Amino acid sequence: MKKNTSAQKLEKMGKDLVKEIEQNKNPSLEIPVRSLSNTIFDKKQNILTLGNNTSKRHFFNISHIKKFVQTIEAAATAKELVEVQKHLSLREVYYRIKRTLPGTNIDLVDQQEDSNKAIEDLELITSLSREQLHINANKMGSVAGNVVVKDKGDLVNWAKLGSGGWSIPSNVEEIEFKSVDAEFVIYMEKAAEWERLHEDKVWKRLNCIIMSSQGQSTRGVRRLLQRLNVEHKLPVYVLTDFDPWGFYIYSVLKFGSISLAHISDRLTIPNARFLGLTGDDIENFDLKKHIIKFKEVDAKRLKDMGKYDWFKDHKEWKRQFQLMKQINGKVELAALSSKGISFISDEYIPEKIKKKDWII
Q1: Residue 239's domain spans which residues?
Q2: pTM, 2 dp
Q3: Structure confidence at residue 3 as a pLDDT band (50, 70, 90)
Q4: Residues forming the active site
């Protein structure tokens, strides 16, 4: 049986280490540096990318050895998973790696964060995504629309899954689109708004797909959005609260993030459109009475985000940041319900899309 690319890359990593040992060298792993200083905003592609800086982690180095071994253990687990064609969750990988080293009182991993970081290092070393390594995160997202997919041999119709919609898996790489009848995708930050749109059958009325995660989007959600955008040429409209955290959610979808800059090409949607909430919406729909005053952490977040290259040189985004600063507060999407139970479905979204009232 021919080995797949993932298994080959993991095997090469191991053979390179064995070769160094046989040559009486100090075994080492070269890992791209994942930090703000090594993250570059590629203005041509309109995404964050990882720079060329790397660091070496050596086995015979007291400050390196534990992380070195954790990464090797993660690689061994991933290789086994790839070869047997099975998957484990991040939590399960943690328990599989967790143990006390023989003859010591040292635990290989102290907490799940340690194994998570080892897996992230493995992604950087092999250029394989976590999903390609057969390691999944928790599911956290819902979708509905006139779409039929094939998932593990089963045909799933997103239009016929009741009130909960389709639960988006962590790994969507092997999802096969059998039919996609939609003109665009609406992605919203809050699951509550997704439920409102789903109950109102917005996906049917507007011939679109509605999708949500809870808060920051998961990798599975981001990858699914990107696939719909790239493979099926569907515009993606983003709905978030009018606050720095909502703007950041949009920013991650569109430009990427520092922590995942190494796989921006698989996750980002550079042509994503921000539909709202905007500062203008607060004025136009008389939402000022629903302003929630900023806490110090909110004001600081707004200030920090204003320095991002993709925001600071964008005239319209600078204006939105200024409007937020002026009211010294935020407004949630849920505030639109004050205009009517289905106002967001019947008027807000259809009218904004019709008038092309979005920010790119």
Answers
A1: 169-174+181-354
A2: 0.85
A3: low
A4: 95
